[in-house]
Amino acid sequence: MPEKQGAFPAALCGALTALSENYGTICSICCALILLDLLTGLAKAKIQGRLSSDTGYKGFWRKAALLAALVFGICLDLLVEYAAAAGLGAEFPALIGRLLAFCIAVNECISITENLSACGVRLPGFLAAALGNTRDKLDQR
């Protein structure tokens, strides 16, 4: 590969490595929870006899929108960090992406518990209550 063609993949890999240091864990958790929610949702639909491609199609795009929201939050974090470095007055830590990721993770966990309950899996009552309380507190702020 000529030297000029190798610059873009190298820059892309470098940027992804830098982002993974700050966001790799939370992005991995969100992606795993989204996948688990999709799987438990499919199991619920199959058990209830409501498995349809139209519902799956809408669910897929809903999950794609969640990932887009996560990327948007990370971009906002990077923008705040850039503004702080440029001296434009942003003197607070950039937590928007992490907060969005946490909200996505909590909502996915709630959906997973609902799907599992609909499939007949018995879960401890405190689990759903704790997740619901966390979601309510996030909605208040």
Overview of the molecule:
The mean pLDDT is 84. The protein is globular. It is mainly alpha-helical and 141 residues long. It has one domain (24-140). The relative contact order is 0.12. It contains four helices and no strands. It has helices at residues 3-48, 53-85, 96-118, 125-140. Helix 1 (3-48) crosses helix 2, helix 1 (3-48) packs parallel to helix 3 (96-118) and helix 2 runs antiparallel to helix 3 (96-118).
What's a concise summary of this model?
The protein has 141 residues and is mostly helical. It is 84% helix and 0% strand. Helix 1 packs across helix 2, helix 1 runs parallel beside helix 3 and helix 2 packs antiparallel against helix 3.
Supply the key terms.
141 residues; single chain; mainly alpha; 84% helix; 0% strand
Percent range for β-strand residues: under 5%
Taken together, the total number of domains comes to: 1
Structural class: mainly alpha
Average pLDDT level:
84
Q: Unreliable stretches, pLDDT < 50, 5 or more residues?
A: none
Number of strands: 0
Helix content: over 70%
User: How would a crystallographer describe the biggest sheet?
Assistant: none
Quaternary: single chain
Shape: globular
**How do the helices and strands follow one another from N- to C-terminus?**
HHHH
Alpha carbon gyration radius: 19 Å
Tell me the number of helical segments per DSSP (H or I, 4 or more residues long): 4
- Terminal Cα separation, in Å? 52 Å
